[in-house]
Design goal:
Blueprint lengths: L3 E6 L2 E7 L5 H12 L8 E5 L3 E4 L29 E4 L12 E4 L14 E7 L1 H6 L6 E7 L1
Antiparallel strand pairs: 1-2, 1-8, 2-7, 3-4, 4-6, 5-6, 5-7
């Protein structure tokens, strides 16, 4: 059974199932940061309608990270950027993800991200919340369900 998370936001709750088999290190990184409270109070600093909502930057402008990077895991069977998929944001280098993540609005405008960014989970309840998020909306907390 896959691990799960509940992402509480100002606009509602998103329930997530992780892709433990596809991206084990990416999932573990997100789980560890969540359990430490790293994401609590951070904002969705980037919102592009019909594309993605992005959060997890400790600075709030898309330039921050947790002080380290993780390797790209993008070769598993669930590496498709579809509606509700969580994926790790990164800079230009493939192995530069850290804490920032995005949630896809739709497959239409995100298919080109396949293989370039690590998909590590999917929103299975609360998809409507993705559409309601605006720039600056906060991640209240993330609860991991092992």
């Amino acid at each position: 059974m896959a691990r799960k998370a509940e992402i509480y936001t100002e606009k509602g709750l998103m329930k997530v199932e992780f892709y433990d088999e596809d991206a084990p290190n990416t999932v573990q990184n997100f789980v560890d940061l969540s359990k430490k409270g790293f994401y609590d109070g951070l904002t969705f600093h980037r919102v592009v309608p019909n594309f993605v909502i992005q959060g997890g930057c400790p600075i709030g402008d898309g330039t921050g990270n947790p002080g380290y990077t993780i390797d790209l895991e993008a070769s598993g069977g669930n590496q498709y950027h579809d509606r509700g998929v969580l994926s790790m944001a990164r800079s230009q280098h493939p192995d530069s993800a850290g804490s920032q993540f995005f949630v896809c609005h739709s497959r239409t405008n995100t298919a080109h991200l396949d293989g370039q960014y690590a998909c590590f989970g999917k929103v299975v309840e609360g998809l409507d919340v993705i559409d309601d998020i605006r720039p600056g909306d906060k991640i209240e907390k993330i609860t991991i369900i092992d």
